[in-house]
């Protein structure tokens, strides 16, 4: 599955994500602190089989297959910026957030 190379603003993070489906309604599944996107497996499995949806889940920075900057303070503000950068990377103009 793909990785998003995020900008210097995101400390050149390599963010692992899984994209499912190709529908017009977009959903991003965001896990809590220090958790990878695999925790959304049941939900993404359901939505990927629905033709009207496209959904993405991802591993937070420092978790799973995403990079783990060692000299960076992890904050919820920065993690929100990571989510926005992934949405930009996917070229989504709007999405539902779970």
Automatic annotation (TrEMBL):
It comes from Adineta steineri. SUPFAM superfamilies: alpha/beta-Hydrolases (SSF53474). Residues 27-94 form the AB hydrolase-1 domain. It comes from the Eukaryota. The lineage of its organism: Eukaryota, Metazoa, Spiralia, Gnathifera, Rotifera. Pfam families: Abhydrolase_1. InterPro entries: AB_hydrolase, AB_hydrolase_1, AB_hydrolase_fold. This is AB hydrolase-1 domain-containing protein. PANTHER family: AB HYDROLASE-1 DOMAIN-CONTAINING PROTEIN, HYDROLASE, ALPHA/BETA FOLD FAMILY PROTEIN.
